[in-house]
Amino acid sequence: xxxxxxxxxxxxxxxxxxxxxxxxxxxxxxxxxxxxxxxxxxxxxxxxxxxxxxxxxxxxxxxxxxxxxxxxxxxxxxxxxxxxxxxxxxxxxxxxxxxxxxxxxxxxxxxxxxxxxxxxxxxxxxxxxxxxxxxxxxxxxxxxxxxxxxxxxxxxxxxxxxxxx
Length: 165
Ligand SMILES: CC(C)(COP(=O)(O)OP(=O)(O)OC[C@H]1O[C@@H](n2cnc3c(N)ncnc32)[C@H](O)[C@@H]1OP(=O)(O)O)[C@@H](O)C(=O)NCCC(=O)NCCS
Prior knowledge:
The chain has 165 residues and is α+β, with helices and mostly antiparallel strands. It has one domain: Gcn5-related N-acetyltransferase (GNAT) (Aminopeptidase), CATH 3.40.630. The protein contains 4 helices and 7 strands, in the order βααβββαβαββ. A 7-stranded mixed beta sheet has the order 1-2-3-4-5-7-6, sandwiched between helices. Coenzyme A binds next to β4, α3 and α4.
């Protein structure tokens, strides 16, 4: 792995999530996804190095977005998994997701993951554009993966030989 250079969006600071962030994170989750994670699922992720938030301002401001990235242990090096990612609608298009994903992938690489996978809705053009920009490639389709019947694409990216994230 080469030098990690996290890219922060203009006025957000990407840092590890704390308990005080959970309600903000959960509110975004509920407003964005048709089948949101329950609050307890985020609570269980506290302490995971790849559970990151993009905090607005330096004080106790709000949260612009979050990412949950962890590792799937296996034989050999672990595989990274981006499990959740969302940005508040009012803060989209400003590079917030880019900042979160950069730091999330750098965290996974720092933990020893050699590659990373994720699932994305086939019709989610914004997310697919984002993952494309990060070098993710199509691996397989999971038919009717989501409760409303939409297929998921499994995408993978190598975390090696990168010039930062
Ligand atoms: C997907 C999502 C996280 C992107 O957040 P964002 O902060 O607006 O994204 P950024 O501003 O960091 O954009 C980064 C890149 O993503 C791509 N992108 C972002 N929005 C896009 C759109 N509407 N259409 C196509 N590509 C898009 C572009 O490549 C963009 O880079 P560029 O601005 O240099 O062209 C956001 O739209 C979101 O929260 N969507 C709902 C939740 C979701 O779908 N999560 C992902 C589940 S897999």
